[in-house]
Amino acid sequence: MTVATAEGAVTLLGRLLPEGTAVVEAFDDTVPAPLFPQELAALGNAVAKRRAEFMTARRCAREALGRLGVGPVAIPSGPRREPLWPAGIVGTITHCAGYRAAAVARAEQLTTIGIDAEPHEPLPDGVLSSITLVEERRHLRQLEGQRPGVHWDRLLFSIKESVFKAWYPLTGRWLDFTEATVTISPQRETFHAWLLVPGPVVGGVEVAGFGGRWLVDRGLVLTGIAVPARQPAYVG
Predict the structure, then answer these.
(1) Closest CA to 208 of 216, 218, 196, 217
(2) From the first residue on, what is the mean pLDDT of each consecutive set of 10 residues in the chain (236 residues)?
């Protein structure tokens, strides 16, 4: 399967995820995106901006499902606002200023997917210390010297968001930012996230962590994790 836009260009997130993953992205909310009643209920009294990005993200998700041969269906929200996919499908959604995307795959190919997009700019003051461990902050200082121009703090935040999105469908449990430790390769544009709490057991094997890829493009930081169904445990 080709993860591509209508114009044939590979999507940003498609560059991070394996063949067989369907990815659809949007950079604005101009395309009409009607919702199913279950989805409207999840919005409640959300402000116009939140409604627009939610609607576009759901449109992206339905188009991605269509690439897997799944007809238009409601994608309701779970207890932590996570998208609830049709049986046999794994997937995830992300949105930030100027970007919305969805990635889905069949469960026989992937065990879980986690994606995140963020603006490529520094984290707000005070956030970094609350989401990182001491060794991670040391690692970020090293990265700044190796490859200036990347907002490494924002990238690390995005990685931990992707880790949570990959973790939660397997566990149904919260994962704090400080319950995984991350190392980033500036040359290979990959990352490793090791869990500091017991991981989920998948296929009789405990998941110790997650590996993924990252990129900076078009003013965005993007991260992606895709765990193959035949290899549920991450080994670095």
Answers:
(1) 196
(2) 47 93 96 91 86 95 97 91 95 96 96 97 95 97 94 98 96 95 97 96 89 97 93 50
